[in-house]
# Entry
Amino acid sequence: MYDAVLILGGSYIDQNTLPSWVQSRLNAAIYQEGKTELFIVLSRGTPHKPPVMDEDDFAVDECTIMANYLIDRGISNTKILKDAWSFDTIGNAYAALTMHAIPRNLRRLLVITSDFHMPRTKAIFRKVFSLHPLDIFKLEFLETESSLSISEKETRSLETWIERSKSIHTLMDLHDFIFTKHDAYNSKASNKGSTVKYTDKDMQMYCV
# Structure
């Protein structure tokens, strides 16, 4: 039995449509309905891709599209929590820990993402949740199959995180990194994200 199933975002097509690999993550979560108290959908979006807009020209968060997918397939909205703040995997983990797991005392957690994204997800979530001063969390991971392979960008991002995480020993260290050094969250960040340009293939696998 899990206190919560955490489903990571992985891009969006429009306000009603998610890529196949994200649908696979959500479908895998639905199979856990009888084993979990809550579902947590993670991701506001990405700074490297414009948000989708609704008919009133308001931005639609990625986690809202994910939540609607679950609701349309029979999951009660009362069992779904959203993270409408994070822009990447590090942010996903930080939000899951500080906005949901700690306040609600969620300890037994299942983290779901795609096969191509799982190595980095494990490295980040294990590190972030280990920063809590008490060893109280039990993390399990479930990867879903996709037609995508691990890209060079994904591999580089994992290597960068492993090196960077060596200097992160406390939640304060992590907070300092995210809010002063991370380009998606520090005071220099804009809603247009960084100036890095991505190919269509990169955009397909943006979740950094």
User: Anything to note?
Assistant: The CA atoms of residues 20 and 200 lie 16 Å apart.
